Amino acid sequence: MQHDRVLALGFFDGIHLGHAALLNKTCERARELSLTPAAMSFDTHPDTLVFGTAVPLLNTMAERELLMRRLCGIEEVIFAHFDEAMMHMPWEVFIEDYLVRQLRARHVVCGHDFHFGDRGQGNPDRLREKCRALGVGCDVIPEIQLDGQCVSSTAIRALLRSGDCKSAARLLGHGQLVTGTVQKGAGRGAGLGFPTANLPFSPDVLVPAFGVYRAEAELDGRRYPACVNIGVHPTLGALSAPVLEANLIGFSGNLYGKELAVWLEEHLRGELRFESLEALRARVLYDRQLVADFYQT
Fold it and tell me: Are residues 11 and 77 in the same domain?
């Protein structure tokens, strides 16, 4: 870590359009200054410790890093441990000792609502003033809006919970990402003629509204159209926890144990309980054809 950086500051949950503006500015400054474009985030959402309430995150740490690197060109992602010491660190110490001396920031970029240090006393104005005194560059990114709505992780969480994945994807600038290692399920999908890849949700990650989604699934560097179900199998016997099941259109083979990335694009319908397996199979066939037709047009 002994090299100079342009450092993006934030939690970056979801990597939405606002985050992208900040991260793209970071890479722009890094090119101008011939420095490394990097991002500093936290391993735990600060609200979890500050307010004692768990925040259902849009992405895991690994997913946040993947999105920052792939979509924005960030070369390093530093996850600081958010504990009592970090929470109560004076804002001046956070800048001078942690960002500048330890992380070797020579230019920083933050959002308009970035707060840091003990009791959140650090803000963009203080950051800019302190950086000027230290000879460190500083950019503050203004609020990003889309159709008059502020782009925020909070708004995106609400949209995903309500089933409006299409609007959430517009604010994100990409599909809602879910990744993981494909687990062996009960084989119910294959029994219906539609084998699925099963991904469990991480405990601290938000589970979108139950139901069927149009999605894309990425496997070994290739993307496939995917008909995805999120839920607990009310027809076949309820599961103890929701699972994501993806039927990859155009793929044949064994997926067990493989790493899969699923990009949720649109919520097609809610989860339903069917009176028979034949009724379930007919509806799955219909949903799958909807997804296939979308990607063929």
Answer: yes
